Amino acid sequence: MTAKARASTDRDATVAARTEVARRFVEARLAARSLPGYPGAVPATLAESYAIQELAIGLYPDTIVGWKVGRIPLPLQAQLGDERLAGPTFRQFLRTPAAGETVTLAAIPGGFAAVEAEFVYRIGKDAPEGKTDWTVAEALDVVAALHIGVEFAGSPLKTINDLGSTVVASDFGNNAALVVGPRSPAGASGPTRPCPARPGSRGPWSGSARRPRCPAALPRPWPSCSGTARPAAGP
Questions:
Q1: Could you tell me which residues are beta bridge partners of residue 230?
Q2: pLDDT 10s digits, 133-156
Q3: CA distances from 147 to 73, 126, 144, 168, 209 (A)
Q4: Fold of 3-183
Q5: Cα–Cα distance between 19 and 51 in angstroms, integer?
Q6: Which range among 8-22, 24-38, 73-87, 186-200 shows the weakest confidence by mean pLDDT?
Q7: Per-domain residue ranges for the chain?
Q8: Of the candidates 63, 41, 73, 81, the residue with the CA atom closest to the CA atom of residue 170
Q9: Does this model's pTM top 0.85?
């Protein structure tokens, strides 16, 4: 076998292995069935994680309407080369309840589930393609509104957070649903700086199939951005 043929075979095997991981996560989510462990080799890099995530997005029968962006633990940031990771929010799991309405969210038995209070940025217009450096004014310019919300973190894999950020990123960022409540009385600027995602053309909550790219520097009290901005402490 030539070196070229061997490299092609290796690439095919890698894609097949990643596709199998993506397929098992998607099937488990759709069936509300837990997984006993990570369904393959644990990704070593975020690039590997996002390759799996992209395959899973292609297999999932729904449309992306936004992004959850979460902070990577500080000890792993240098190793992974980023401060944050992202995962999609799908249309069927976006909730916009009326005042007083009860929202029911179903956890996967034996999987992971958690709820977290959030600030949710609703993006009003497209961000420039490829732009990664933002001033506060530029970021605020793409924000239509700031809302109070709840992230429903969820995965078929109970140990997803224990296994680290590459595993989290590979399974939709450990994201299950987003509840968007009323607008914040603080206005679009909110108590901190927003970080815009790349909105698409499918309505006011839409987000493209491209993951958002956040500015490197954000105020330390707010460890996530665009889609959701999670307080480090407090209710």
A1: none
A2: 888 889 888 989 999 899 999 999
A3: 25, 19, 10, 25, 22
A4: Fumarylacetoacetate hydrolase; domain 2 (3.90.850)
A5: 9
A6: 186-200
A7: 3-183
A8: 41
A9: no
